[in-house]
Amino acid sequence: MDVLGFNATILVLVVLVVLVLAAGIKTVSQGFNYTIERFGRYTRTLKPGLNLIVPFVDRIGAKMNMMEQVLDVPTQEIITKDNATVSVDGVTFYQVLDAARAAYEVQGLENALLNLTMTNVRTVMGSMDLDQLLSHRDEINDRLLRVVDSAAASWGIKITRIEIKDIVPPADLISSMGRQMKAEREKRAQILEAEGLRQSAILRAEGEKQAQILQAEGRREAAFRDAEARERAAEAEAKATELVSRAIAAGDVQAINYFVAQGYTKAIEALASAPNQKVLMMPVEAGALLGSIGGIAEIAREAFGGETAASRNQPRRSPSVPRTGDGT
After folding, report:
1. Burial tier of 190 (Cβ tally within 10 Å: 0-12, 13-18, 19+)
2. pLDDT for 136-154, tens place per residue?
3. Measured between alpha carbons, how far is residue 34 from residues 9, 45, 66, 179, 220 in Å?
4. Whole-angstrom Cα distance, residue 183 to residue 188?
5. In the chain, count of helices (H) and strands (E)?
6. Strand partners, 34
7. 298, burial (CB in 10 Å: exposed 0-12, middle 13-18, buried 19+)
8. What pTM was computed for the model?
9. CA 51 – CA 39 distance, rounded (Å)
10. Helices (H), ranges, 25-136
11. Helix, strand, coil distribution of the chain in percent, nearest 5
12. How far apart are alpha carbons 248 and 167 in whole angstroms?
């Protein structure tokens, strides 16, 4: 009987030890922190892993999620600075940094964060015009993040991001904005078209100006070349005349014959190419032209006082004169 009583006592002690150990050993999951209260007062925070507490004296107060969490902000009506009513909703991302402060500094953490966010959304967006509201969403998010994060810092909460999801103006306002956008686009199209016509006219005028400049330079170059050609021709004529004059002074009869024949040929060419010349009677045979040249040569010989042997042996003939159409 004593043995049975001893065994029962040992069994009871073992059960008590197991219960005490079970009450004193606490396992905390990753991403969570537990607050420990002793007689209702916060004493410390348990980190993830295996932890020991005083059984039947300490107890777990709050189990705080330390991971980043998302809080959905419901749709609410906001009146902008220019008295336009819009519907706005969004999301808030937050993280608990201090489990004790988040558990004991505020009651109803999510509800507090939700009301804080909605109040500041109305404050920030209500101070802006509708156009700013629709085109400066990043600026709205930044302002909301700074304000809400500053207010929640005393609760041990870090607001990581606030995003406005939808901004919905009234239907009639959307229609007016559509007409305004269409008018603005038509205005831009007309401006671009006018700018294109202006640029085209400028380029066309520049092209005409450049063409006129090139034409003027071409005329100037052509005139310079013509003047140079006339100068060269005059120099050649003067040189030829000088050579012929020297030949005449030296008594060269062949040079005199060539010079006189060339002048006679040019005179015949001028008469034939005259615009008012209809009929021109001239020697048909080439001997007549040669005879004329020979007669002129005889006159030149007499002028220089020299006679060849052939001229002394042959009777002197008068120079042949071309006959015109009237027989003179």
Report:
1. exposed
2. 999 999 999 999 999 999 9
3. 36, 6, 10, 59, 101
4. 9
5. 9, 8
6. 46, 63
7. middle
8. 0.54
9. 19
10. 99-104, 109-126, 130-135
11. 60, 20, 20
12. 113
List the one residue out of 96, 102, 104 whose CA is nearest residue 42: 104
pLDDT score recorded for residue 246: 74
Tokens encoding 120: 């500041």
How far is residue 314 CA from its own chain's centroid? 99
Collapsed DSSP state (helix, strand, coil) of residue 24: helix
Write out the two tokens for 83: 């008295």
**Residue 73 backbone zone (phi > 0: left; psi -120 to 50: alpha; other: beta):** beta
Listed in sequence order, the DSSP H helices in 81-164 are 99-104, 109-126, 130-135, 137-152
Higher pLDDT, 120 or 275: 120
Residue 81 CB neighbour total at 10 angstroms: 13
| Residue 321 C-alpha from the chain's centroid | 86
Specify whether the CB–CB gap between 137 and 164 falls below 8 A.
yes
DSSP state letter for 328? -
CA pair distance 208, 89, nearest whole angstrom = 62
- Average pLDDT over every residue of 248-260: 65
Beta carbons of 117 and 92 less than 8 angstroms apart: yes
Distance CA(157)–CA(99), nearest Å, equals 9
Contacts of 23 (CB under 8 A, 6+ apart): 53, 55, 56
At 42 the three-state DSSP class reads strand
- CB-side neighbour CA atoms (13 Å) of 211: 6
